[in-house]
Specification:
Elements (H helix, E strand, L loop, with lengths): L1 E3 L2 E2 L8 E5 L5 E4 L18 E4 L1 E10 L3 H13 E6 L2 E16 L7 E10 L3 E4 L3 E2 L3 E2 L4 E6 L11 E5 L5 E5 L5 E4 L9 E6 L4 E6 L8 E2 L4 E3 L20 E7 L6 E6 L2 E3 L6
Antiparallel strand pairs: 1-2, 1-7, 3-6, 4-5, 6-9, 7-8, 8-9, 8-10, 10-23, 11-22, 12-22, 13-21, 14-17, 14-22, 15-16, 15-21, 16-20, 17-18, 18-19
């Protein structure tokens, strides 16, 4: 069952019952382009795929006196809210209200069935708690880090911190091939590092003691791949149900260098459940 903005839709206090729900499923679309290179057969491959928005329809039975409360629940913040799984409080998603259609003669009817249409822009569930990788020493020029066990959808708002005097770096997401890299040598200051904020695509200086707190904008020191920017993506080797994100870091200096990352894990929508 669902909760909306923290309020259960099966709710004795308001006399609500969730009667029916459609099953939102995550779909993937690809904009296939045809880029021809003279002297090469066929066309270039590798256009990124993306998840499409999903829709769901809920039918809630309410008492007449609680009809306005039900409207207010979904219309809060101009109809942008959070849909949560009651049987798994670790996952939620953002929705946009598309429609509310009450089936009753008037608001004083004893019981009214209300059909509510929602769009889920991201087409995915997200963890409600952020996963943070422990600080790990960088000991080799090329080093891989596994992150976010069970990931099912690409994440564009993850944060990365590289601490210490790393010189220059390139970080590649193995699943998507997207990357972040320095375009000039990092101006190291003791006990600090580079913080990349995925939600905005900016880079900052931050201290190793408070790696997620920006202290100075350093965005002119990095470049990010096109086609959607840096993404953390699922990958797997022999079993597609055993998914993980793998990040590969290349640095020109490793002495005293550390790496960490954090993100809200993402999963495909499946029958309105986990």
């Amino acid at each position: 069952m669902y909760s909306v903005n923290g309020v259960p839709l099966d709710n004795d206090d308001f006399g609500w019952r969730l009667l029916r729900r459609s099953q939102p499923l995550t779909a993937t679309a690809r904009n296939l382009s045809s880029v021809v290179v003279p002297g090469r057969n066929g066309v270039l491959a590798g256009v990124p795929s993306f998840k499409t928005a999903a829709t769901t329809v809920l039918v809630v039975r309410t008492t007449g006196e609680s009809l306005e409360a039900l409207y207010s629940l979904f219309e809060k913040n101009r109809g942008i809210g959070r849909l949560e799984l009651e049987d798994d409080s670790t996952r939620s998603t953002v929705f946009e209200l598309a429609s509310i259609d009450p089936q009753g003669i008037n608001a004083e009817d004893e019981l009214i069935n209300v059909t509510i249409g929602l769009r889920i822009p991201s087409g995915e569930w997200r963890d409600t708690a952020r996963t943070t990788m422990d600080s790990t020493s960088v000991t080799t020029p090329v080093q891989s880090f596994d992150f976010l066990a069970g990931i099912g959808s690409e994440i564009i708002d993850g944060d990365i911190f590289i601490g210490g005097n790393f010189g220059n770096f390139e970080l590649e997401d193995v699943g998507s091939g997207s990357w972040i890299k320095t375009i000039q040598t990092w101006p190291h200051v003791a006990s600090t590092g580079l913080l990349y904020v995925g939600a905005t695509g900016q880079a900052f200086r931050a201290t190793t003691a408070s790696p997620w707190t920006p202290t100075a904008d350093m965005s002119d020191y990095i470049d990010v791949s096109g086609g959607g920017g840096f993404r953390i993506s699922p990958t797997w080797s022999s079993d597609p149900s055993d998914r993980i994100a793998t990040l590969e870091l290349t640095t020109t200096n490793q002495s005293g260098v550390t790496f960490r990352a954090r993100a809200y894990n993402a999963y495909a929508l499946r029958n309105g459940e986990v």
